Amino acid sequence: MLIRLVASRIVISLFSLLVVSWAIFWAVEWLPGDTAARVLGREASAESVRVLRARLHLADPPLVRYGHWLEHFVQGDWGESLAADRPVVRYVFPRLRNTLILAGLALGLYLILSLTIGVVTALFHGQVLDTWLSVLTLVGMSMPEFVVGILLVLVFAVAVPLFPPLALMDQVKTFPGLLYTLSLPILTLTAAMTAYAVRMMRDNLIEVLESDYVQMATLKGLPRVRVVLRHALPNALGPALNVTALNIAWLMGGVVVVETVFNFPGLGRLLVDSISFHDVPVIEAIAVVLASVYMLANLVADVLVLVLNPRLRAS
Amino acid sequence: MRGPPAPVIDVDSLIVDFWDRRRWTNVVHGVSFHIFPGETLGMAGESGCGKSTTAYALLGYHRPMSRFNGGAVRFLGRDLLRLPARELQKIRGAEIGFVPQNPATALNPSMPVGHQVMESLEAHGACATRREAEDRCLGLFADMGLPRPKVVAGRYPHQLSGGQQQRVVLAMALACHPTLLVLDEPTTGLDVTTQARILSLLARLRARYGMAMFYVSHNLGVLAQVCNRITVMYAGELIEVASTAELFRNPGHPYTRGLIASLQQVSGFVGTQPLLRGLLRRDALPLGCRFAPRCEYSQPGCFTSPQSLATVGDGHEVACWRWPDIPAGTDPADKGTV
Amino acid sequence: MLAWFPEWPLSALIAGSILVLHGVIALTGPMWAPYSPTKILVGQPFASPSTAHLLGTDNLGRDVFSRVVYGERTVLTLSLSATGLGVLCGASLGLVTGYARGWLDEVVMRIIDIMISIPPLILALLVISALGSSPLLLVLTVAFFYVPRVARVVRAATLRVVMEDFVTIARARGESAWSIAHKELLPNVIGTVLVEFAIRSGYAVIFIGSMGFLGFGPPPPTPEWGLMVNQGREYIVTAPWAVVAPAVGIASLVVPLNLFTDGMARLLGQSVPWERH
User: ipTM for the complex?
Assistant: First the structure.
């Protein structure tokens, strides 16, 4: 039962990934107009357009081109960057590493913050602290990342110069140096994710804390701490883990904006830059990578919901 | 003749309020009763009358968004409403056991049931080692008539039937040999056969463990099977207290009569007592007798003068000033003629 | 509807009034804004806020206050039309599939599963980079992302209603599908649709603002808040007001919108689908 459900989710995700890769390819290469002409701009000579058309195999029928592209992509051959004349793989991977560092650190901070704040707000449910935190999380969820980022720069880099306004990776040598350089982007990414998770956790925990089995645990004479940690938290964690997986999915869009705010040399900014250069192979590669992580995280979220449901797990 | 023994628990003018959107609403209104050692006291009343709230108060507990607003609940001399949380923890589950209304939701869905029983034993220091706790848990399961205790202990709640879940919860409540067992509609969710089995199990357990019991139910028939004495609650107030035999032989309050009549009708016996009409509506309670709007015998005076329990016989109390005027079997058509 | 008024939480009432203010600015702003939003050098570049320029001027000497006021209309028009379109199509799809059930429902739900698994920002970037950025395209893209998400929620709500007895009774009475949908279904699903619209308007403001910030929204010199933040970023030390004003503009729109949605959802007994897309 459970295995079948999980398997069907995986199959749907794989199929979706195929559809998305096709959509990406289509969006970049099949749209009206000649890709080569679009890449090179209006002033390009006929000769250079012809060269580029040959290089992109634009003479082939679209489906054949997609097939070729997919075949090479799966084998790790992501083509040559048009702007840098380098293999896309070599171009993309250092950026991917940077993005993963940033996202990883933000996730770490997010996990610590959301777990503590979520539990605290639920425990103080109905009191002044809870009301304020509740409004605060709503504000956090309502602020676009670029607004949060810019305001953080304004306060902590311009008004009170505590942290660097731009996250430039070249000078980073040590781990503390890394944290210092990335502090503002990490905070920006964490803010929205945490607000979102705290709200979900709080709502869940409150529901669970009012459940019959938590009341029963209290009436059994268990200490409050044990009631919350052993009976309430495990049952509220399932949805919270689900939110975390969705947050990771969201990060794939969030990094694009936040990397732009802080000029951070990551995948998201490379995508934005490549779009302005019309660097087709790079755009395709990054879009597929980001979409894969996004869909993988969504898949994990779905599977977690299934696996953490004790009814399904035991049968 | 010796005086009566000291009661196990003594509830004195208990008042409980609930937070209802923007103000406190009174739910339990000055309820007093006591339970003697080894005695089973029943509490009858329809849903929403405050009987579960009273049951919780016996453990010094009130639900979220509610509060104790007066009175005392003295358990062996200690007032549970004024006890610090740490002291309460020691009493709950050890000296007072609780059996909830719906065992399916009262068991933690993500913890094997054996674990949930052992946890209770460990929290109260009833067992020196884990091994001992495990043995006691399996022993309890056997006592409760659960087949293959070892298998059941490793199961999650949803893998058990309703009757099995109720037996597990009973084991949990009895784990530390409590002096008092509070049962909140323990058989409501079960089918009739399972209900009968649980009731006979309860009778055996009482004989064996000798604890006092407080049994809440909307079903007078069930209470008649297990209780020595019965209290009847209406809209947060006690309206009648009597021994089980006396209550059925000689019910005083029109509401009690209605309850008994409904019971007889359900069992196919057509009596002469009027049935209950209407539903308990807390938003439309009169100043006087709270039952007056639904009462077949009410007079204008009923709506304005509050009623309180008055002794009418040996251990029989009724909160109705008109009760002597209503001989058993009176036809409600006589309404108005005193 | 007005009878609910005393039931609304204070925070939602305050939020509601702020939203009304935003609406009034969007409608009447161009009538009383002191300067043209695109005219350069109406004052010294980088002039700090003064009586002549309430929120100062930007690097090109444009009046920031006027740009923010005009931007209100841009933001509201784009996000409300995108949300309206998306919710309208999504809700209709959800109603139809939830009501019809059967194979149609199955097929549509599978397609919806796939559509939801597409990362919105990335695909929007690709589409707009390929077709060029135009406001209409932006609106259509956002609406496209909302259709499957709204459809899923409305379908679930429809299923809940359809399972209830009164629809079965209406069917037994021989009422037509149209009249059932009109008389029984719609009034019961309308709460869900309202909450969907409210919450997604907020997401749309964020999404469209982010696209503007990345340079894929309405082209300069359109007074669009996201774009203004991005352009002001370079001069954040000399003219912080040119960045703060539009940033606060967005925040003061989305925060009350979500507070209001939260209050409204609670009143309607709905849960809010916080999902940020």
Answer: 0.87
